[in-house]
Write a structure and sequence with these properties.
It contains five helices and six strands. The chain is of the alpha/beta class. The radius of gyration is 14 Å and the shape is globular.
């Protein structure tokens, strides 16, 4: 495994690169988790990877819940963002609840935007599952949702 360190004006964060990192999720995530965590993914990724993250959080004794969204660029919108907010509120997520984005670029953008705006900011971890999201949307902190007229 390789670790890169990214320095932003306000803080520093690591990027972990390697094979089979999901098997080490408990070790890698532990320093960045709070007492409660939301795993937000989509209906395509959930059957593949959600269970391993739930198991990792169980091993650490971290309270957690999952929000599973529809898959696809067409769902990168206000309605889906509200599904995230609804799930957070239904599970009594607080400002310190860590949001984990488990998925590709759409999930990363949606969860990043939600984390930036839910109760004026919540901790956020990206777990990109596609090559494009690994080199684009998971690095640099840019997040957005689409307007009906324009893709962002």
């Amino acid at each position: 495994m390789h670790t890169l360190s990214v320095q932003t004006p306000s803080h520093q964060y690591p990027i972990f690169i390697g094979q089979n990192l999901f098997a080490q999720a408990d070790e890698l995530l532990q320093p960045y988790l709070t007492k409660k965590t939301a795993i937000i993914t989509n209906e395509t990724i959930a059957p593949l990877y959600l269970k391993s993250f739930q198991t990792a959080l169980d091993k650490l004794g971290i309270a957690h819940f999952s929000i599973i969204l529809p898959d696809g660029e067409e769902h990168k919108n206000w309605q889906t963002l509200n599904l995230i907010f609804d799930g957070l509120m239904q599970n009594r997520a607080e400002r310190k609840t860590t949001l984990i984005a488990l998925g590709g670029g759409v999930i990363g953008d949606m969860v990043g935007f939600a984390a930036a705006t839910y109760q004026r900011g919540a901790p956020f971890i990206q777990v990109p599952t596609t090559l494009l999201s690994q080199v684009d949307s998971s690095v640099g902190g840019k997040t957005a949702i689409n307007h009906p007229w324009v893709k962002t």
